[in-house]
Protein 1
Amino acid sequence: MKIGIMGGTFDPIHIGHLLLGEFAYEDFGLDEIWFLPNGNPPHKDTEETKKALRHRVNMVKLSIADVSYFRLNLYEAEVDHHSYTYQTMQEFNRLYPDDSFYFILGADSLFSIEQWMYFREIFPTCTILAAMRDDKDAEEMRRQMRYLKEKYGARIELLQAPLLEISSTTLRERAARGLSLRYMVPDTVAEYIRENRLYETPVI
Ligand code: ATP
Ligand code: MG
C-alpha cells in the first residue's frame, strides 16, 4: 500500500491539513492517509498538555470520521518517550515493510527541515510531498526541493493543493477573541472547541 503521513500538532486540526490529505490521496494515488498527532515533548509532559493532547486527538477523530481512507495513527501520541519524525518513520518502515510512505508537509516545514533532529535519516524512509504555503512562491519551493534532493538525495514531489492562509495559531487567536471558526474547521470540531471551551485564554 501507498500511505500518506500527515503529521502535525493539530491544535486544532483545520481544513488546511485536511485538504493536503485529500489532494495527496487523489494526486498520488495513495491508499490511506494516516493523521499522526505529535506527542508532547519531554519538557512539556504536564497534566495540562496531556489534557490538550486528548483534545487534539479527539478533534482529529471528529474530522476524519466519515472518510474511510483517512485514519488516525496514535504512534507518537502514545509512545512513552518522545518520538522524532525520523524515529517514527523508521519504525513505520520496520513495522510495515511492504508499504511505501509519503510524508506530507507544508512549505514552512520544508524550509525548516534541516533544523529537525537527525533530519537526514528521514529522507530514506519516505517520499516527501510538499505543499505551498503563505509567502513561499512556486519558484522558491522548487529551489528548496532541488537543494534538498541534490544535497541529501531526498525524494520530494510538489503537492498541488489550494493555497489557504490558515493556521492553528490564527484559529486559537480567533477562538480566544470569541470569533467564528466556521468553514475553517469541520463543524463538529467548531462545536467541540465551543463545548470544551478550548483556547479561551489567549496563549502567549
Ligand atoms: P501552528 O500555527 O500551531 O503551527 P499549523 O497550522 O502550522 O499550526 P501544524 O500542526 O503545525 O499546523 O502543521 C502540520 C503540517 O501541516 C505542517 O507541515 C504545516 O506546514 C502543514 N500545514 C498546516 N496548515 C497549512 C496550510 N494552510 N497550508 C499548507 N500546509 C499547512
Ligand atoms: Mg505549524
Protein 2
Amino acid sequence: MHSLDQLKLSNTYSNLPEVFYSRVTPAAFAQPKLASINHQAAALLDLNLNMHTDQEIAEYFCGAKYFQNSSPVASVYAGHQFGVYVHQLGDGRALILGDIKNQQGEIWEIQLKGSGITPYSRHADGRAVLRSSIREYLCSEAMFGLGIPTTRALALVVGDEKVYREEMETAAMVTRLAPTHIRFGTFEYFHHRMEIEQVKSLADHLLTNHFQALLDTEKPYAQLFQAIVSSTATLIAQWQTVGFAHGVMNTDNMSVLGLTLDYGPFAFLDSYQSGFICNHSDYNGRYAFNKQPAIGLWNLNALAHGFSSLVEKDNLISALKSYEDTFLNTFETRMAEKLGFSVQNNGDSALLLELLTLMEQNQVDYTLFFRQLSYFKRKDKNTELRDLFINRDAFDHWADKYQQRLDIEQSKEPQRQEKMLHSNPKFVLRNYIAEEIISAAKENQNFKPLNDFLAVLHSPFEEHPDFEHYAGIPPEWSKEIAISCSS
Ligand code: AMP
Ligand code: MG
C-alpha cells in the first residue's frame, strides 16, 4: 500500500509515439475542496489514504500536487459524432496523469477530467461543471455496482473557479480510472490520416498492454478486432437489460475495452419506453434507448475501417457478423435471470416481448417491476406487482402465462426469489435522485447525500432501509428533467 506521495506512476500511454498526445500542465484549482473520495477505487491503485487530510487528497486530484513520475498528456482522437466524421477531437478537458500496475498486476490509468485547456479544446474552456461531474462520478460507480463494465471514479474535487454554461456554474474535476481510455476514435484518427504505421503502433500497444493473451494467436490483429466486437456487444446488451441509455454513443465515446465511457446526458429508464431519448440535443433520436444495439454495430463498422490496414476484409466481416449473436446471448441470458428462469424454453422471447409491450402500454417503471417480480408468488394475485399496471386484466393474462412458465423450472420459490433479487437491482441512479444530490451539493456545499448514495450504488441489490424513498416510483417532477450535452 502506498500513500499519495509514494505512488510512482508509469507512462504506458505516452510510450506511444508523440503524435498520439500532447504534453499539458493541468490548470489546478486555487482552492480545491474534496467532495468525495472513493475508497474502493483507491484500493485499485493500492492507495492507503488514511494518513492524508482531505485537503491533501484534493490537491493531488485537481492537479495542484504531482504524483512521482507523472507526465500529464492529452490524447488525440477523432470520431463519428452523430454519424458525421470529425477528423480531430481529443482530450479537450481531460489529462492522463500516468498509470500504475497494482499488486494484482492490473494496469490502471489515471485521468483527470476538467483540468483545463489542451490543444484539443477547440473553443471550449477545458472545464467540467459540478453538476455533470457528480453525474459521471456516481454513474460510473452505479454501473460497477450493477456488474457492468465501466471506467471507475476515484475522486471528485470542487473548485472556486466559475464556469459559464447556460448560466454561471461551479467547476469540478473527476479523477477516473481505466486500464486504458483508448477509444474507437483513436484508430479512426490515424486511419483517416492514412498514417498506417501509427494504426499498427496503436494495435501493438493494445496487444502488449491489454490483450496479451492474443499475442500468440495466429492473427493477433484480427483477434483484437474480434475482442472489441465481443466486448462491445456484451456491454450494450447489459445496458439494455438494466434500462441504461448512454445518450451520446459517438465513436469517440466508445472504449476499445468495452467499458461504459464518457457519462453525459445518460439516463436509466423510469417507466419503460423503448424509444426513450435521454439527450435533449439528440433531435432525431439517433441514440434512443432501442437504437443502442444497432448503433453499437454501426460504430464497430466505423472501427472496422480503422482496422482495415491490419486485418483482411473477410476477418473484419466475420467479426462484425458475430456481433448479433454475442449481443443476443448476453441479452437473453441476463433477461432470463431477471425473469427467474434457469432452464431455457422456446417461448421465452415471446413472453418477454409481450411483457415489454405491456409495460410500455401501461408506463410501468422498469426497475421497480423487475424488483417486484422477484417476489412473485404462484396462485396469488400479486397485488403490488399488479398495481403497477393500468390494465390489470392484461397483467393477469400475462401473469398466468408467467406462472405456467415457472412451472417448468426445477427450483423452489425461495431459491428463485433469492437469485432474482441479485439480478434485479433495487437502486439505480435515476435522474431525479442525481438532481437532488446535485442540488444539495450546489446550494449548500453539502456532499453528504452524494457520499451516502455512493455506498448504496455500490450494493444496489441489497436492502438499504434509509433509502427506501429512492426505491419507489419517481416523483412527478422527475418527468420534467431535461439533460443536454452541455457539461
Ligand atoms: P463529449 O461529448 O463530452 O464526449 O466531448 C466531445 C469532445 O469535446 C471531446 O473531444 C471533448 O474533450 C471536448 N469537450 C467537451 N467539453 C469540453 C470543454 N468544456 N472544454 C474542452 N473540450 C471539451
Ligand atoms: Mg467524449
Protein 3
Amino acid sequence: MSSRNDASTPVAIQSVSRRFRRKQALDQVTLEIPRGVVFGLVGENGAGKTTLIKHILGLLRAESGSVRVFGMDPVKQPEEVLKRIGYLSENRDLPNWMRVGELILFTQAFFPDWDPAYAEELRNTFDLDPTTKVGTLSRGQRAQMGLLLALAHRPDLLLLDEPSSGLDAVVRRDILGAVIRTVADEGRTVLFSSHLLDEVEYVADHLAFLHEGKLAWNGLLTDIKSRYRSFTLHFPTPCDKPPRFDGALSWEGSGLEWTCLFEGDTETGRDAATKLGAAIMEETEPSLEEIFVARVTGKRNRRVLAGREG
Ligand code: ATP
C-alpha cells in the first residue's frame, strides 16, 4: 500500500496476523484508516476487534505484517505514537483509589496538549463530581470518565473500544455521537469498535467487519449499503418455499407474499423479480443490522452480533 509509511495516514495495517495458542485472532488483516473519518469496527464477540486495537496501540507486536500509525511503528516509537492517541479501553481500567478531580489532573500531567477547559466542559456534560472516588462510579460513569480522559488532550486519533458499553441510550446517542462527530469534523480520526449496528450506522462513515479474525468487508458505509435492497414480492400463485433468486441472502414470508434481502445491482434484482412473475409490492433500504444478520446467518431478524436472538 503506497501510503503505508505516510505520516498523514492515521492507521495503515498490512497483512497482520496474530495467533493466541490455537486461536487465530487476526488473519492477514489489511486496512487503512484515512484522516478525518469515523471508522466503525464491527464483528461478533471474539472476532478480533480488541486485538486489532491493541496492535494500533503497540500493546501487541504484529507476528507478521506491519502496523503503522502516522507512519510510525507503535512498538518501536511508543511515546511519539501514544501522545497522538486517545484510548478508551473495553474494560475501562481506571485507578479506583483516586477521586475524579485527581485523576483528571494526574492524566493531564502526561499530555502537553491537554485542554483543561475542554476537560471541564466534558466533566460537566457527564455530570461527574470531582470529589467522587473512581471506585464508586457506576459502569456508565466509568465509561464517561474514560471518554473524558481519552478526549481532553484532543488526540489526532481516538480509539474507542466498545464505547457504548454501560451507557444508557440517551448518553449513547446524544453525547457519544456528538463527541465522535465533533472529533471527525475537526479533521481528527476516530476508530470505534461496537457490536451495536444501529449505533455504527448512525455515527460511522467507514466500516470494517471482522469475522473470525478476517476482514470480511471494508469500505464506505454508503457504498456497502447501496449493494443491498429489501424486496417484498407478490407471486401469482402461492409458494411453499422461497423461490430461486440469484443474490437473495434471506427470505421471510409464506404463500403469495415473500420478502427478500437482496445483494447486488438493484436493477438486476427488479428484473429477476419480474422474470419470476412477481410484482414488487415494496422496496426498501435494509438496515445495517439486517444486512449483517442475513450475511452471517442467512436469516432475517436475528441479532447475532449482539450475541442474542430476538
Ligand atoms: P469482544 O467483542 O468479545 O471483546 P473482540 O472482537 O474484541 O471480542 P478479541 O478480544 O480481539 O475479540 O479476541 C479475539 C480472540 O482472541 C478471542 O477468541 C479471544 O479469546 C482471543 N484472545 C484475545 N486475547 C487473548 C490472549 N491474551 N490470550 C489468549 N487468547 C486471547
